[in-house]
Amino acid sequence: MAARAAATYSIGSPSVSTKPNLRQQIKPTTLNLHHPLRCFSGLKAVTDILCESEASFLGKESNAALVQTFAQKRHGHISQYRFNPKASCYKVAILGAAGGIGQPLSLLIKMSPLVSEINLYDIANVQEITADLSYCNTPAQVVGFTGSSELADSLKGVDVVVILAGVPPKPGMTWDDLFNTNASIVKSLIEAVADNCPEAFVHIITNPMNSMVPLAAEVLRQKGVYDPKKLFGVTTLDVVRANTFVARKKNLRLIDADVPVVGGHAGITILPLLSKTRPSVSFTNEEVEELTVRIQNAGTEVVEAKAGEGSATLSIAYAAARFVESSLRALDGDADVYECAYVESNLTELPFFASRVKLGKKGVEALIHSDLQRLTAYEAKALEALMPELKASIDKGVAFVQKQPVTA
Ligand SMILES: NC(=O)C1=CN([C@@H]2O[C@H](COP(=O)(O)OP(=O)(O)OC[C@H]3O[C@@H](n4cnc5c(N)ncnc54)[C@H](O)[C@@H]3O)[C@@H](O)[C@H]2O)C=CC1
Ligand SMILES: O=C([O-])CC(=O)C(=O)O
Questions:
Q1: pTM score, whole prediction
Q2: What is the rounded CA–CA span in Å between residue 337 and residue 246?
Q3: Collapsed DSSP state (helix, strand, coil) of residue 389
Q4: Which listed ligand is nearest to 269 at the C-alpha?
Q5: Which helix (H) or strand (E) holds 9?
Q6: Using 50, 70 and 90 to split pLDDT, how confident is the model at 171?
Q7: Residue 279, preceding bond cis, omega within 30 degrees?
Q8: What is the ipTM of this complex?
Q9: Could you tell me if the CB of 312 is within 6 A of ligand 2?
Q10: Which ligand sits nearest to residue 309's alpha carbon?
């Protein structure tokens, strides 16, 4: 979807965009984009600065890490993607915005220089969050939508939709329990996406993600608008955890560690390919076993630590924001954006599989198969072991929609 060239930024004033019947109108101060605004860096607007990787809400260091670890070096140089605010006005919708992940994710996205509007949607009231967030003097306008009657409006014209509506697990809950509650929520939200913004990038976070992405694909297919290049299961948290744990173990700088994680996003379907860690490091067999299990169980660690109060929220908000940022950069023309994601895939015999992908303006431009070559014996065995579980999760998601077909 094309960027909005005619958009204006609102700087230094509340940027809430309200619907007249819900709240008082607060008119943003608008800044003509011909103004030499070159960079909106974190919390402070900076004018007339050449803006490369600094143009990120992730901050200069984190963003440098992203560029270093994901950019393909061409002719020995990292490509210089230049943020151009005239062409960088994207609209993001967050479905499930009032929840534990939705709130910090909304804040992080509000800090992105690439975003002109954030639509916050939830069945719970989002008006307090909308007002609160709107006082941050960053460019994006914040608009709240509460309840199913406002869902369609929250999706009109959006470039990226992030779906995190649904319940998180409690200790002792199975993936089946979670599926039974969340499947119908995701199905109805995706039906609305198909009707209102079929060309948007769709990021799915709601668990069990291994089933929710195939479920969403089937809904979109039945609606006649499925574009496999634009549907993503967000597995960035697994990569973030793998990078953190490996960097600590091997005394790498956190920003240098880059571990591809493939498969899916649950238990043994999460397969960190430690042999493909960059920079190259060696691991003992014990270290491989310990790190792999730690990465696979990190979600459960948080669920247990929260003792019934939900699952990871802050780290997934960070990871999801990174994936949104990467998608927006790809939409904005950065030719060197690579992330791991759970997508329709032909890298294995399964129709959906997480791997590193190259992102472009139209979504997935390429699946990176090289990570799956020359696996260690441990990785090859783990890959074989995860396939039946991942296949069952995929089949479950598709079957759910086939039993309850979508309305035309
Ligand atoms: N993919 C990943 O890496 C991760 C996924 N998750 C998953 O993300 C999901 C959300 O987790 P939290 O934010 O912690 O849960 P939460 O319970 O704090 O928030 C969920 C929000 O969804 C809203 N909601 C429920 N039904 C809705 C509907 N039909 N339409 C719109 N909004 C609706 C609720 O009102 C609530 O505000 C869970 O399924 C969790 O398991 C959590 C952590 C990591
Ligand atoms: O199951 C959950 O909601 C938590 C989760 O995915 C994770 O922390 O990786």
A1: 0.85
A2: 22
A3: helix
A4: 2
A5: strand 9-10
A6: confident
A7: yes
A8: 0.99
A9: yes
A10: 1
